[in-house]
Design brief:
single chain, 176 residues, ten-stranded mixed sheet, 4 helices, 10 strands, 36% strand, globular
Length: 176
Amino acid sequence: MVSPVRRCHTAELSADELTRARALMDASFDDFGDHDWEHGLGGMHALVEDDGVLVAHGSLVMRRLVAGGRSLRTGYVEAVAVAPTHRGRGLGHEVMAALEALAPAYDLLALSSSDEGLPLYRSRGWTAWRGRTSVLGPTGVEPTPDDDGSVLVLGGPDGLDLDDDLACDWREGDVW
């Protein structure tokens, strides 16, 4: 039986639950590495189980994005996956709804979407950032043109211009 979405912080997950969540990511993505996993830790998780088996997961971590000269406290969505055996049942929507409910704690919600995830996010009202992307790297601002168009946002403060340049904070692995 599929359980309702459970939301909790990384610190509240047992070692076994973290291992099962990582295994779900590995089973769902061909190229999910250690840095990708690390990016999804330290925030809130939304989990769905079916008879004790983790079948859907997503996390929301705090990041700083800079747009239009403003530093935005951003809830950044990471590690969203649904087990192949459970796709098409609305579990991705349930996970996203649980994460989106945390929006009031942030200036903005954002994520970097794969082509496969785009229909889910767009159907939920997420919008593509139209401006150029970059990272505030160790040597200064570094353009990330390969990520232009893949960053999606939900909400945001009044006056936020989706055509402005958008920069993210530095991290190991994929910065977006």
